[in-house]
Design brief:
Layout: H1 2-28, E1 54-56, E2 74-77, E3 87-88, E4 113-115, E5 123-125, E6 155-158, E7 162-170, E8 175-186, E9 189-199, E10 207-221, E11 227-242, E12 269-284, E13 289-291, E14 297-304, E15 307-314, E16 331-344, E17 349-361, E18 374-389, E19 392-410, E20 413-422, E21 432-442, E22 449-460, H2 464-473, E23 481-492, E24 496-506, E25 509-513, E26 517-521, E27 526-539, E28 542-553, E29 564-576, E30 581-592, E31 599-601, E32 606-608, E33 620-629, E34 632-639, E35 651-653, E36 656-657, E37 662-671
Antiparallel strand pairs: 1-13, 2-3, 2-6, 4-5, 7-8, 7-37, 8-9, 9-10, 10-11, 11-12, 12-16, 14-15, 16-17, 17-18, 18-19, 19-20, 20-21, 21-22, 22-23, 23-24, 24-27, 25-26, 27-28, 28-29, 29-30, 30-33, 31-32, 33-34, 34-37, 35-36
């Protein structure tokens, strides 16, 4: 009887496998080439999929799979304290902005920048972000968006070596080179490097940029992710030449005063060299386990006329893991970073900062279906800062700056709180402080529609250069800048993102230009009201990406901003030749209302307020085409198309006209072996 039962069970299993194989083979013709068969993460990039009945949580590997699915085998993540959330690289070759490899600033969603007209040169944000942290710096970073920092470089985990090669050029002398390679030398142990070169042609005769960026990183995960370690170095060199006269005098309304372009400033230029080294390691006190229902993989065979395709299809069915049997008392970690930034030429400055972060957190389930209802992170940050500005040596040692983060889950509602304090220059008795309270409410269990209310109160000493200039020219310490922020935001997937902000500033500080740059401090308070809308619409093959920014400053002297800024992409996204070719053809349009944009001082590399020249009030339109064939993508772009018939009296920054019409192209090739 038992033998008969075993025979019936075996026969039933055999028939079930045959049925599944038949169905999978039939469905094979419709499966996309870049589907995911990774045994660790499914399409959302962070949910574990099937494995044996009890497997330690972590990075795991299986045998090689066909090339058609290798695109799904590269994962990346950013330098995030207390966790390593790994995201899947999904078709990383196309970016529907039309400028994806020529100018990364125009591809940053939610940010709209105003520059000098040359890729990689100094620029400011049209939509400023206030109350965003206590990071100490020499002065506002003119290279933000281009410069690499530990928080915006990528770390990888791969099951096959991954290489990116890219070259971009134009009808002028512009060229951009990008080379990146990453591979795991052992399961969980990855090495990577990323090199970029921006070398655009300048606006004037004998002017231009030559910016080099290089980072090399390593990261390690133990098999159960209990031990995690990351580290790397970042080297950058920004060379900006402002030599020569003017290539076309008709460009400028005036060249005899500060409302025009400086003429014949021979041998003028700057070189910025930056070096960053960082490393961190964390250790979880308890190993975590999860349980899955076991399923096998099937070999699907699809026959189309005389062509036979054999591929492996994973049909695992994951049981959502419940509350762990053993609670983890937490994770201890240490992070260390060293920054050195040197500016060479008319104004020589040197900035050095060494910082360590020691923290403990009980948030050790980043990819788990169960989370602590109360998450807590506690830490200390010792720092040593040294600045040399025109021969003035300024130093600060900040001992054990504390910070704390907490999160409480009440059903769907989540309450988040943050608090941090940091020592400030010349005022040891009044450290910088920042407090944040946020409420998140998802309207559905999948968190596809999320509403957030955020309140921030911040007190911060001005940047180090401002402190030094105030002490040198006025003999008194600058006042602390107080700021408050209230923001309401609602987001539905990647389709709609709406935010409304009210920023309050007290004792703002800025630079103005007279016979020289001098520091000014506001005696009155100001409010900055901002609204942002991001909308991505798709109707079949037609796509419309809209970004609108509205803002109003109650004091345009302290905080000049454009009333309205707009950035839009309209493009068709479709496939050709039996889905072997993907193409995007469309138009980018950018615009912002006129305002007194900050001027750029090439001697010191800082921005200053001016009231002589307005910037804005004209359209900027680009026509582009992107083509993706398997691992290669190609783009071509006609930049600033409307300059062919518009009068060329437009400026991006005061005294710096925008580029005229140009034709750009580039090719990128991905290697997954």
């Amino acid at each position: 009887m038992q033998r008969l039962q075993h025979c019936l069970i075996s026969l039933s299993s055999f028939l079930l496998v045959l049925l599944l194989s038949s169905n999978l083979a039939q469905a094979q013709r419709n499966l996309p080439n870049n589907r995911n068969t990774n045994p660790v993460f499914n399409n959302d990039g962070n949910t574990p999929t099937g494995d044996t009945t009890a497997v330690a949580k972590g990075i795991q590997y299986t045998k090689e799979v066909p090339d058609s699915v290798l695109r799904s085998k590269v994962f990346y993540f950013y330098h995030q304290p207390a966790r390593a959330k790994i995201f899947q690289i999904w078709n990383p070759t196309l970016d529907p902005t039309g400028i994806q490899f020529a100018d990364p600033l125009d591809a940053l969603n939610g940010n709209y920048y105003l520059g000098k007209g040359i890729v990689g040169q100094p620029h400011v944000a049209l939509f400023p972000t206030l109350s965003n942290g206590l990071s100490l710096q020499l002065q506002p970073d003119p290279n933000i968006g281009y410069a690499k920092r530990p928080f915006n470089i990528r770390f990888y985990q791969t099951q096959t070596p991954y290489t990116v090669l890219s070259y971009n050029s134009s009808l002028n002398k512009d060229y951009v080179v990008h080379v990146a390679h990453t591979q795991n030398i052992k399961p969980g142990w990855n090495l990577a490097f990323d090199y970029r070169l921006f070398s655009p042609e300048g606006i004037y005769t004998s002017s231009g940029d030559k910016n080099n960026y290089l980072d090399a990183t390593m990261n390690y995960f133990s098999r159960d992710s209990r031990l995690q370690a990351k580290g790397g170095i970042i080297w950058q060199s920004f060379k900006i030449d402002e030599n020569g006269g003017i290539s076309d005098d008709s460009y400028f309304s005036s060249s005899s005063n500060r409302a025009g372009i400086p003429v014949n400033i021979y041998n003028m230029g700057t070189v910025n060299r930056e070096f960053t080294a960082f490393a961190d390691a964390s250790f979880s006190l308890v190993r975590q386990f999860e349980h899955y229902r076991y399923h096998d993989s099937l070999v699907a065979r699809a026959v189309n006329d005389t062509t036979t395709v054999i591929d492996t299809v994973v049909i695992t069915d994951t049981i959502a893991a419940g509350k762990p049997r053993t609670l983890n008392p937490g994770r201890f970690a240490i992070e260390m970073r060293y920054d050195r930034r040197k500016r060479v030429f008319t104004d020589s400055t040197l900035w050095q900062e060494a910082e360590a972060t020691l923290y403990w957190t009980n948030d050790v389930y980043p990819d788990h279906s169960w989370h602590n209802p109360f998450k807590l992170t506690l830490g200390l940050q010792p720092r040593l800062v040294k600045a040399d500005i025109e021969g003035n040596d300024l130093s600060m040692y900040s001992l054990l700056d504390p910070f704390a983060r907490a999160e409480i889950s009440l059903g769907r509602l989540t309450l988040r709180g943050e608090a941090e304090m940091r020592g400030s220059f010349y005022d040891k008795s009044t450290p910088d402080s920042r407090y944040l309270l946020a409420i998140d409410y998802p309207f559905d269990s999948a968190r596809q529609t999320l509403a957030t209310l955020t309140v921030v109160k911040q007190s911060k000493c001005p940047d180090v250069r401002m402190v030094r200039d105030a002490m040198m020219y006025t003999g008194s310490k600058p006042r602390v800048i107080g700021s408050e922020l209230i923001e309401a935001r609602i987001k539905h997937r990647d389709i709609v993102d709406i935010s409304v902000k009210a920023n309050h500033l007290d004792h703002n500080a800025w630079y103005e230009y007279g016979s020289r740059l001098f520091l000014r401090e506001g005696n009155s308070q100001l409010w900055l009201f901002q609204g942002a809308l991001t909308l991505r619409l798709a109707l079949g093959w037609m796509h419309i990406d809209i970004q609108q920014f509205l803002q109003h400053s109650t004091d345009e002297v302290q905080m000049p901003v454009p009333l309205w800024a707009s950035k839009n992409s309209i493009y068709a996204d479709f496939h050709l030749f039996q889905r072997t070719v993907r193409a995007q053809i469309g138009l980018d349009i950018r615009y912002h209302t006129p305002y007194f944009a900050p001027g750029y001082d090439y001697n010191t590399g800082i921005f200053y307020h001016q009231d002589e020249t307005t910037v804005g009030g004209y359209l900027w339109g680009d026509v582009f085409i992107n083509i993706n064939v398997k691992r290669a993508s190609f783009y071509a772009k006609a930049g600033h198309l409307n300059a062919l018939w518009d009068q060329p009296n437009y400026f991006l920054l005061p005294h710096y006209p925008g580029q005229r019409f140009g034709f750009f192209w580039g090719i990128t090739w991905h290697f997954f072996d």
